[in-house]
Specification:
This protein has about 200 residues and is mostly beta strands. The chain has one domain: Trefoil (Acidic Fibroblast Growth Factor, subunit A) (Trefoil), CATH 2.80.10.50. About 5% of the residues lie in helices and about 30% in strands. The chain contains two helices and 13 strands. It has helices at about 15, 35-40, and strands at about 55-60, 65-70, 75-80, 90-95, 105, 110-115, 120, 135, 145-150, 155-160, 165-170, 180, 190-195. The strands form five sheets. The chain has a four-stranded antiparallel β-sheet, with no helix packed on it. Strands 1-9-10 form a three-stranded antiparallel β-sheet, with no helix packed on it. It has a two-stranded antiparallel ribbon with strand order 3-4. Strand 9 and strand 10 form a beta hairpin. About 45% of the residues are buried. It comes from Kitasatospora cineracea. This is Ricin-type beta-trefoil lectin protein. One of its GO terms (molecular function) is carbohydrate binding. Keywords: Lectin.
Length: about 200
């Protein structure tokens, strides 16, 4: 399997994540059973919940290892389509593989794709519902910044700093393009993370 060795998040959270201890750590029982089965089938490690987590926003600092981001609505993960490395390549959901195009690291509040070294952004600084998510050379702009908000008992929303809208998947099949939408905390806006591999990719600034 691509993406390198799997590292369970629960063992050494402060070494793996330079974040508050409850970020990226959610109750496994809250996840949809089919999503859990798919992730375990792919050999990816799920996280363990932290009691008493609050609904706070986090602006993650740089991580020493990579993270795969799964949807709570379906057994799919956030990836850059077709292993694209060019500016403008679409963000979509696909069956979780742990590949480098599904692996992300935090850098200054941005999500950097390990395969391309480019940042996840909302296209053209869009603020409307339905504006698409894509990758682009990292600029540090607000449309490339994301706030993680813990939703107790479920997971996290990813809110775009520029638009204030949440990363959203409008379907539950392979290939669905990721967009932003008004935050309403539905399963299609809930995401969870787990560590995979080690060592950061270079950032394409």
């Amino acid at each position: 399997m691509a993406g390198g060795p799997i590292k369970p998040v629960g063992d050494t959270p402060h070494q793996l994540f330079d974040l508050p201890s409850d970020l990226m750590r959610i109750p496994v029982l809250a996840l949809k059973s089919r999503a859990v089965a798919a992730l375990l089938g792919a050999g990816l490690a799920l996280t363990v919940g932290v009691p008493g987590a609050s609904a706070d926003d986090y602006h993650p600092s740089a991580l020493p290892n990579t993270v795969v981001i799964g949807s709570a609505a379906s057994p799919h993960c956030l990836e850059i389509a077709d292993w694209g490395t060019a500016d403008g390549a679409s963000a979509r959901q696909w069956s979780c593989t742990g590949g480098a195009n599904q692996s992300w690291r935090f850098s200054g509040g941005s999500l950097v794709n390990v395969n391309s070294g480019k940042c996840l952004e909302i296209a053209d600084w869009g603020t409307a519902n339905g504006a698409s998510a894509r990758q682009w050379s990292c600029t540090g702009g607000a449309n490339q910044k994301w706030l993680w908000t813990h939703i107790p008992g479920t997971g996290y929303t990813l809110r775009n700093v520029n638009s204030g809208k949440c990363l959203d998947t409008p379907g539950n099949t392979n290939g669905v393009r990721i967009q932003q939408w008004d935050c309403w905390n539905g399963d299609n806006q809930i995401w969870y993370g787990f560590a995979v591999g080690s060592g950061p990719a270079p950032v394409d600034y």
